[in-house]
């Protein structure tokens, strides 16, 4: 089975950057059921074509876990169209060989990866089981011009009519990742055969690959039904989740987005390190009543609870969902009266004066300021340093200079990219200082800066902390 993708976007050879495959040579990748061969039949400034050829070894297929159901009988296991026809194995091959492009990322051409460009794709042979216009019904609503050319059952002999196989040609102006996601989902839908066991994981795959287009596709029910091989419970779940309210989706997005930042920083165990460093500063200062501003899910609170010195710990956040998660993670429903007396979670905004937050010894803002629009910072500064005015304020924020050192940072050059989609900015060390020093001066504080995490000689540490102390000469 063969997939080709061409573009006429100039310079067309940028397709190689988008696919992370050099047009000058051939590429090969072993797969559980065979191998994938990749090459560029043409690679010019005006037009470039990438070809992915998937070779299936029917014996490996039977031996491997991905073999067809045993019920099919011996002969059916070895003699079938698997080696020749595009199917779910094409999707597997796409995700194994060009996954970065499938996910919409490009190391050297991120902007192009996010730009719709003229694309043409050919997949052949594809089993298109069902009504004649099925390919058009699936791809036209997504903005493609579709040509489906049936293959005769017997070459050069009309008498036998057409086979269920077609050559599918698509053309349109879209992002390469959109094209790949459409093919990933819809080629197996055209094929409509079961080649492996379908489970919950397939629902997740369908929703992930269908993100941004499947929920509004007029054939979404048909697609979910075929993709999930009519497993009605899974189909119902997929359709319900596609139709889910915007709110639920937003929350889910939020969780995955947070997970993204944590994954990026995880090898450094950076967040733990931050929380330990902040706790130590608060302990060393002898603070007893502390407030965690933008407490999120209560991770700092958990560290603080372990220190008997803190007699009162208040967490404040604007997000009710986060506060609920904090309540769960801290097991407040089962907590003893002694713990409940020490801890309080409050719903509030940090940019408005809130008298409940006045009179504390210390305040922490861990990875919060970068979530505020820069023009809201002056409001936060007054709330924190003029009205709350605790003796100690600890602020942490990412050090943007360090981003280039994250391997998985999804961007060209990295410098323009932020660690979390909700970050409104990330500061260099100089920018953090340039914000903190005048603020300290204006409100009668001194400020000291500390790196958080291992320092790189050139780029500094991954995160940074400013410790403000009221009325102390530096
Ligand atoms: N401090 C936590 C969470 C950091 S994420 C931790 O280190 O794990 C930033 C948090 O700030 C989010 O929970 C968000 O809801 C909260 N936040 C952002 N802007 C806010 C505002 N204006 N008022 C209150 N909370 C805010």
Task: Give your account of this protein's structure.
The structure is a single chain. This protein is an alpha/beta fold and 474 residues long. The chain has two domains: 2-197, 2-Layer Sandwich (c-terminal autoproteolytic domain of nucleoporin nup98); 255-470, Rossmann fold. The chain is 36% helix and 24% strand. The protein is built from 18 helices and 14 strands. The strands form two sheets. A seven-stranded antiparallel β-sheet has the order 2-3-4-1-5-7-6. The protein has a seven-stranded mixed β-sheet with strand order 10-9-8-11-12-14-13, sandwiched between helices. Helix 10 runs antiparallel to helix 11. The protein is elongated, with a radius of gyration of 28 Å. Residues 64-73, 245-253 and 411-415 have low confidence and may be disordered. S-adenosyl-L-homocysteine binds next to helix 14.
Brief summary:
This protein has 474 residues and is an alpha/beta fold.
Q: What topology does this entry show?
A:
Layout: E1 2-7, H1 14-19, E2 27-31, E3 34-43, E4 48-56, H2 58-63, H3 74-78, H4 88-97, H5 99-102, H6 110-113, E5 117-127, H7 134-139, E6 145-154, E7 157-174, H8 176-191, H9 200-209, H10 220-227, H11 232-242, H12 246-265, H13 270-284, E8 289-293, H14 299-305, E9 312-317, H15 320-329, H16 337-342, E10 343-347, E11 362-366, H17 377-388, E12 392-398, H18 429-443, E13 445-452, E14 463-470
Parallel strand pairs: 8-9, 8-11, 9-10, 11-12
Antiparallel strand pairs: 1-4, 1-5, 2-3, 3-4, 5-7, 6-7, 12-14, 13-14
Helix pairs in contact: 4-8, 8-10, 9-11, 10-11, 13-14
The structure holds S-adenosyl-L-homocysteine (SAH).
S-adenosyl-L-homocysteine (SAH) is lined by residues 294-296, 299-300, 317-319, 322, 349-351, 366-368, 371-372.
């Amino acid at each position: 089975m063969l997939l080709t993708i061409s573009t006429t976007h100039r310079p067309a050879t940028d397709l190689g950057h988008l696919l992370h495959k050099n047009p000058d040579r051939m590429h090969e990748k072993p797969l559980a059921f065979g191998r994938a061969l990749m090459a560029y039949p043409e690679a010019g400034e005006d037009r470039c074509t990438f070809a992915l050829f998937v070779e299936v070894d029917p014996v490996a297929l039977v031996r491997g876990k991905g073999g067809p159901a045993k019920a099919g009988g011996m002969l059916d296991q070895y003699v079938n169209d698997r080696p020749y026809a595009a199917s779910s194995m094409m999707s597997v091959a796409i995700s194994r060989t060009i996954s970065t492009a499938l996910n919409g990322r490009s190391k050297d051409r991120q902007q192009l990866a996010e730009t719709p460009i003229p694309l043409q794709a050919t997949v052949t042979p594809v089993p298109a089981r069902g009504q004649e216009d099925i390919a058009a019904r699936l791809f036209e609503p997504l903005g493609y011009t579709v040509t489906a050319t049936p293959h005769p059952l017997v070459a050069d002999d009309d008498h036998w009519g057409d086979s269920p196989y077609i050559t599918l040609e698509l053309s349109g102006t879209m992002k390469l990742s959109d094209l790949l996601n459409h093919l990933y989902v819809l080629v197996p839908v055209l094929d409509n055969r079961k080649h492996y066991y379908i489970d919950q994981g397939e629902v997740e795959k369908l929703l992930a690959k269908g993100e941004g287009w499947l929920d509004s596709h007029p054939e979404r029910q048909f697609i979910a039904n075929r993709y999930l091989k009519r497993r009605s419970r899974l189909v119902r779940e997929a359709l319900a989740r596609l139709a889910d309210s915007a709110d639920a989706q937003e929350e889910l997005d939020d969780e995955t987005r947070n997970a993204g930042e944590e994954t990026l920083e995880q090898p450094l165990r950076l967040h733990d390190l931050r929380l330990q460093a902040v706790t130590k500063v608060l302990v060393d200062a002898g603070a007893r009543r502390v407030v965690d501003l933008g407490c999120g899910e209560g991770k700092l609170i958990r560290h603080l609870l372990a220190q008997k010195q803190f007699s009162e710990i208040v967490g404040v956040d604007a997000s009710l969902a986060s506060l609920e998660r904090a309540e769960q993670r801290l097991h407040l429903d089962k907590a003893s009266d002694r713990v409940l007396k020490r801890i309080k979670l409050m719903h509030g905004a940090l940019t408005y004066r809130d008298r409940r937050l006045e009179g504390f010894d210390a305040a922490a803002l861990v990875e919060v300021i970068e979530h505020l629009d820069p023009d809201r910072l002056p409001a936060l500064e007054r709330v924190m340093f003029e009205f709350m005015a605790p003796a100690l304020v600890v602020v942490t924020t990412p050090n943007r200079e360090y981003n280039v050192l994250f391997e998985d940072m999804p961007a060209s050059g990295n410098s323009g990219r932020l660690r979390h989609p909700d970050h409104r900015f990330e500061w260099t060390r100089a920018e953090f200082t340039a914000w903190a020093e005048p603020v300290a001066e204006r409100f009668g504080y001194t400020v000291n800066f500390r790196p958080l995490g291992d320092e790189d000689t050139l780029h500094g540490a991954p995160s940074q902390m400013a410790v403000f102390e009221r009325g102390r000469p530096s």
